[in-house]
Design brief:
This protein is mainly α. 74% of the residues lie in helices and 0% in strands. The protein has 6 helices and no strands. α1 runs antiparallel to α2. It is flat and about 60 Å long. It starts with a helix and ends with a helix.
Length: 141
Amino acid sequence: MIGEFLLLRSIQFARWMRGLIGGLATMEVLMLHHGRYLTPFAVCEFRRAYCVYRSALNCLADRACSLKLVRYHFRPKLHFLGHLVWHFLPANPRYYQNYSDEDFIARTKRIAERSHPGHMSRLTLLRYIIHACLRFSGETI
C-alpha cells in the first residue's frame, strides 16, 4: 500500500517536471520557428504551453512547501512572462524583447561607484555616453 502511494507520488512528480520543461521548450520552439509575429494557432499553443508550465510549477512549489523544502520560488520573476503571454502576443518576444537592461544596471553601477557623490548622476550619465560613443565608433577603451 505504501509502495503504491510512493510510486504514484513519483509518477506525479515526473509528470510535473515534464510539464515544466515541456512548456518552456514549446514556447522556445514556437518563438524560433516564427517571424516577427506568431500565427493565431501559434499564439494559442504558446498560451497553452505557458499555462502547462505555470500549473506544473505551482504543483511543484506546493509539493515543496508541503515537504518543507525551499524550491521553485520563481513566482515574482515570472510576473513579466505572464504579461508577455497575455498582453504582448502575437508579437514574437524573440524579436522585440531586449534583456540587456540587467547588463546596463551593472555597468552604470560600476561607473557610479567611481564618481563623486555630489556629481554622481551627471558624471555617471556622461561617462556612460562617452563609453558608448567610443565603443560604437570602433575605438578601444
